[in-house]
Amino acid sequence: MVKSTTKSSYSAKNIQVLEGLQAVRKRPGMYIGSTGVEGLHHLIWEVIDNSIDEAMAGCCDTISIRLLPNSWVEVTDNGRGIPVDMHPTKKISALQLVLSTLHAGGKFGEEGGGYKVSGGLHGVGVSVVNALSVHLKATVHRDGKIWEQDYEIGEPKNKVKAIGVSKKTGTTIAFQADPTIFETIEYEWKYIIDHLRQQAYLTKGITLLISDERTAEEKDKDKTSLPFVNNQYKFHFEGGIASYIKHINKNREPKNKNVFYTEKSEGDISVEIALQYTDEFSESLYAFANNITNPEGGTHVSGFKTALTRTLNNYARTKNILKEKDPNLTGDDVREGLTAIISVKIPEPQFEGQTKAKLGNTEVKTVVENIFSEQFTIFLEENPKDAEGIIGQCLLAAKARQAAKMARDTVLRKSALEGFTLPGKLADCSSRKAELSELYLVEGDSAGGSAKQGRDRHTQAILPLRGKVLNVERARLDKILANNELKSLIIALGTNVGEMFDIEKLRYHKIIIMTDADVDGSHIRTLLLTLFFRYFPDLITRGFIYIAQPPLYSIKKGKDITWIYNAEALDKYKAKYDINDSDLQVSEEESDTEVEEIDEEKNKSTNPKKLNIQRYKGLGEMNPEQLWETTMSPANRVLKQVKIEDAEAANQTFDILMGAEVAPRKKFIQTHAKSVKNLDI
After folding, report:
1. pLDDT, tens digit, 9 for 90 and up, residues 249-268
2. Which sequence spans correspond to the domains of the chain?
3. What is the 8-class DSSP label of residue 329?
4. Which of 342, 439, 522, 620 is the most exposed place for a label (fewest CB within 10 A)?
């Protein structure tokens, strides 16, 4: 038995009890995920979810969201209004109870307050919004009166009081997020618009009104704020998720002109599914439970996939399209080019994990499977032209899969024989621990050579890429595996690709794209991101993909060098040291030592502040020591982790930028041209 050399006591007095909403302020990340941009916007979603719950209960059809000056946000609905009468056991107004008590609301009791289904039930509630706000004001129109209550940092400043009369019903929650809690309190207009558009599609018939009434200065800080239509939007979709499908596929060529749509219930479970096939090579499948997005799918997705494969195979055999000797279409075959939305509404959803990324209710699988199988069979029979287009797409995918399998087998045989060594390409690291290993994808042989010399050979592997890799947005897997650069990358990753993909075999937990800071470098980076997004999405969602940030400038003063990573940082540097442009000597190429010494002596006599600045256009301009110091050393480097905040928005962006249609890409460039900074052509 080991005795401690220091005395310590552990008794009842050491047990800390956090009263009321103190726990939320102490550990905000537990309740809203983070205190960054996502957590800040989560406050808005929580308030809106309560209003949408009213809409799903059939008691609300209009919700208004206003961004106001000084980071205020106001959400108003025309629902029933939060009750204001005295709670029978707590002896305070029900409004105050909802706003100041965790897990208090009208969705937990046996009656459920009229909420058959609810998204807000599984959120953290408006009480958490209250706890994390400097100020919150609740206004309720109910029982013929207008009721009001104010809060500061979660504490009520007054009792609930009637301030007027009203013939309307509804609730308004206005709040101002606490800047001492959040890393930023600047809301992003586009982020809000994209989320609310999705909610409008998922709640058929509801009207969402969004207006940006911030000051001009606040709008200028928000780079996503657009000057058209006075920053006001109105969303109303009678077609629901069928309209959502058309929105997603607006830049794609459909295989079935009529969008399949069904909405049916079985018991307490409501199922809504819409789908359409296009000429894309990948699938776009979005799943929701009670309007909460489930990026990892769940039982509703499993039921849908099973029914889709079975129904299309049955139809193809019934119509003699698939002969007796032909193998069945696989799940991958029937999902190529598929755009589908699955939305279920259930009384008590069970999610796996805190983020609600995956639905776990087992009974949902059977319900979705039965409803979709029956309705999709009817659709195929009633729309033979659409059925022909869908089956044709699936058969084409099956042929491509066979070609890809042959190509993949060739790659695997080759990699097995070579033992994953790629002469002249991959300079592997000595570590075999994936969590410690990094793979740098480097543009060009010159930069690749510097990176190989300057790296940490124990943990850092280097794979130089020659030229621009294949645009995989318009290529199937067999063509990808025939491309030497991409084939080398796939072998280096170790995960395989397509239906054989296994993330557990990933050889590096940091895959770092390192390209030049010019147009060509940006293009290569975009091509690689397209590959990862379309064929290795798990590498992005698991946080394994990074972008290196090499410096744009070096500033020399004598023998001291300061590295500057972007134009904004350069402006801050000049402001900090009171440097004018006349104090700087700018060069595109490295000056030799003799000239530097002469210039330095000259600077001392003419202008003591004169500095030599070099603009780097390519990684190859840096020697191995400089590349290590600025871009590869874990102690100094700047890496940006690639994340997918909105899968549907990311999908659309890749469609526009990398797809075959020119018109949408031209419009995108024209729309965003003015917001591009430091364009280097």
Report:
1. 988 899 999 999 999 999 99
2. 22-238, 242-398, 420-549+641-675, 553-615
3. P
4. 522
